[in-house]
Write a structure and sequence with these properties.
mainly alpha; DUF4287 domain-containing protein; DUF4287
Length: 70
């Protein structure tokens, strides 16, 4: 049986790890430490302070924000 396909922001995680050389857990923790900041404030921080691209930063923040709602 095939593994279920990962959807949503988490689908970016393997690419993020490969591109930036850090485990996804590190990025998730960086975002969690910034809460309750606004989504785009955290995206901007990831881009300016850590050099992430917009799509990757947005995916990480969206994932953490969705977790926080659950």
């Amino acid at each position: 049986m095939a593994e279920p396909r990962i959807k949503g922001p988490a689908s970016y995680f393997p690419s993020i790890e490969k591109t930036y050389g850090r485990p996804i857990g590190d990025w998730l923790q960086i975002v969690r430490e910034r809460l309750p900041a606004k989504h785009m404030e955290i995206v901007s921080m990831l881009k300016s302070e850590h050099g992430l691209g917009h799509g990757h930063a947005n995916a990480i923040v969206a994932h953490v924000m969705a977790e926080a709602k659950d």
